[in-house]
Amino acid sequence: NGRSTSSASAKSSNPHFSSSSGGDGARTGRNGQKRRTDGFCRGERGMILRYTPTVVVNFMGGNVSEKHYDWAPGARPPLIKQHSLAKHEILRAYLIAYMQTLTSSPRQEEFRLTLVDGFAGGGVYCHATTGSEVLGSPFIMLEAAREAELIINQARQKKIHFDIHYFFIEAKTATANVLRHQLVERGYGERLNKSIFILNGRFNDHSEKVVQAIKARSPRSAKAIFLLDQYGYSEVPVSLLYMLMHSLAGAEIILTFAVDSFINFASDHPITKRGLERIGVSDLLHGRSFEEIKSTEENWRLFIQSCLYKEIVEASGASYYTPFFVRTNGHGDYWLLHLSQRSRARDVMARIHWDKNNYFIHYGGAGLNMFQMLGYVPEMDSTYTGQFDLDFCFDNLAKEKSIKCLADQIPRLIHPNPKGMTFGNFFSTTCYSTPASTAIYRDALGLLLKYKEIQIIGEDGTERRSANRIHDTDLISLPKQQFFHF
Fold it and tell me: Parallel, antiparallel, or unpaired for β 34-36 and 26-28?
């Protein structure tokens, strides 16, 4: 079950957790009836765990969120809300799909990767609604890697050796100690300081050391995924994103950013200016003022969001990016951005959008005009509430809209290139602006082939008749003597 054989003794000497009366998350009142006690949750082993909430103030003077996750010796796990579980599910799904994509060669003998959690926390939470124990992102990473290894090697005669290192970075000493205890308690103690490293301190202070460790293990490919689930929006400057993306050839970043919190307190006050300088986007509005934008732009919040998103993406130096827009109930919307240097990584994340279509909504167009956000509304998650009613939900209707939009736009983009464009080049130069995956691109090209609006020729001169046979090196062009009308 993945736990240490000495777990019983560990439990009795656990310096961080203790039991309370009642085995079902309730306490007994004077009349003998059980009642729920606010602030307590039921642990995996039936322990009743209490949480200690705190409030965080952002650098502009407002609350980043209702509660800042907090762990300490003698305290209990904090509550976690449904929208946070959505990003955990995306992280798990992406890691498994990513590892499967990078281990497709039958001749491959080893897979080397580094997973970095820059804001690791204490590793365990209580679900805000159900009171059940929920494992945090460090364990999501560990479990996803184990699951991926089982899936990949199950179908292979020649097994792949997985060589994965983990860096869990936590600023608070007490929280780092809680995480260490949780890892030992759950059977990972022997891997500490060998393949699992807990670093106490700020991610910004440890980032260069981690980068050097990754380079030492894998000088050429340097595959690494950084989860930067910051509190608020000011703890990860864009200069740090740039350093990660350009120091490691195989770096990817999954970044959270509390965009609503930023917009709520943004103004022309010097405090906002200093905050923007801290993030590294001091010229966010390119000479315009917040007061001017709020008074002249009809949808000024969306305008500021668009400016902020563009600045972060461009300053990061990432070639490919995929935005998630996670919507919360009364606590402010936040982004979950995926940054990478390879179109294949971006496509894997895009496929997760469609595979996990109950989590997300897309607020932009279905075609190649996407420079906007995606959103997840916990109250509309069918797996959570049993109800589901969203607009562009990455479902069959959204897929049909995407195919039609792409089919309309692709010929217009091919037209300026008389010699045509390869499918791989066309996808890599347009995919960052659309919610579509390669499979949807192929479906759109198949529709165009059907109506003879394009032609696709393979490297060997073979003309493609089916979208299923399209390869990255195939050349897409308009048919000869085609008249194109704008």
Answer: antiparallel
